[in-house]
Amino acid sequence: MMIKVNGEDYITDKLFLSEILSDMGVIPERVAVELNLKVIKRADISEQILKEGDIVEIVNFVGGGNLMTINLLN
Amino acid sequence: MQDDNLIIRGIDFKSRLWVGTGKYKDFEETARVIEASGADVVTVAVRRVNITDRKSVNLLDYIDPKKYKILPNTAGCYTVEDALRYSRLAREAGVSDMIKLEVIGDEKTLFPDNIGLLKATEILAKEGFIVFPYTNDDPIIAKKLEDAGAAAVMPLGAPIGSGLGIRNPYNIKIILEAAKVPIIVDAGVGTASDATIAMELGCDAVLINTAIAGAKNPISMAEAMKYAVISGRLAYKAGRISKKLYATASSPLEGMLL
Fold first, then answer.
1. What is the least distance, in Å, from the CA of A42 to any CA of chain B?
2. Is the ipTM of this complex over 0.90?
3. Which of A49, A61, B11, B54 has a CA that sits 20 to 30 A from residue B152's CA?
C-alpha cells in the first residue's frame, strides 16, 4: 500500500506503524508520531494498524531557540 | 545562590540563564556551549525526522535529558492550530509537559500574535501543559496570559535575534510589579550587560540563543552570560542605591587637615 511519511510517498507491505518505524531505523523513544493529524501515544504505536493513504508524521527535537523555518510539517 | 533557585510548578531550576540550541555549527559545539553557560534549561524545536538518512544523529544524544531540562518550543508556528499540534507532539516525544509557546504574527518582526497566543495558552493550560508563552513587553497581555494559566510569562526585550537589548525596561518593570508568575525575558539580549539589566530589573530568568550562538566565541559568551545573570540577580536582591543628581562624599570629612 501507499502511505505518506513526512511528506514523502512511501510504499510498504507492512501493516503496523511500529514495523514501518523499525524499517526506517527510527527509535520510538526518541520521536513523536502523528497519524492523520492525531498524535499516537507511544504505548499505542505497536498496536496501530495502517491503511492505504494514511498520512504519517514522525518528528523529533532539533536545535532551536526561536524561529527555525526548515523542515516544518506540511 | 543555591537557596535562590527559581521554582516553577514545583520544578527546581538551578540556573536563571536559559539557553536555546539553534544556530550552532554542530551538536558538539551546542553541548560545549550549554556546559559553559551553566544553564539547566535548554530550548529545542520540533521538526520532522530525517527518514532518508539512517545515520542522522539526534540532539538528545548530545544533550542528556537527565542532566538538562528540555524545553520544546513551537517556533515557526503562525496559527493557534499549528502551535497546538507542535505542543502535543512535543509532549508525546516524552521529555516533559513544558512548552515554550510561540504563535508568531509576522515574518519580518517575529512579533507574537497575542490574540492567538492567549487562545493557545488557555487550551494548553487546560490540557495540563506547563505553558511559557513568548509575548511582547506589554503589561496587559502579560496579565491576561497569567490569568489564562501560563506558568510563567516570557516577554521579549527586543525582536528575536536583534541583539537590541532591553528596549523598554519600564514596561518590563510594570509587568514585574503586576505579575504573580515568574517573568522570563526571552529574545533581544545582545551581550552580557543586557542580561544583567534584565535581572537587575527583577526578572526571574533570561533566555538567550542568538547572542551566544552568533558571538565570535560562543563558549566565552556563554560563560559571560552565566556571570551576567548571576551578577544581575545578586544586584537585584542586594537593592541598588537610588539615583541622585549631585555627588555624595563617600569618604569622611572629619579628620581632614585644616
1. 7
2. no
3. A61
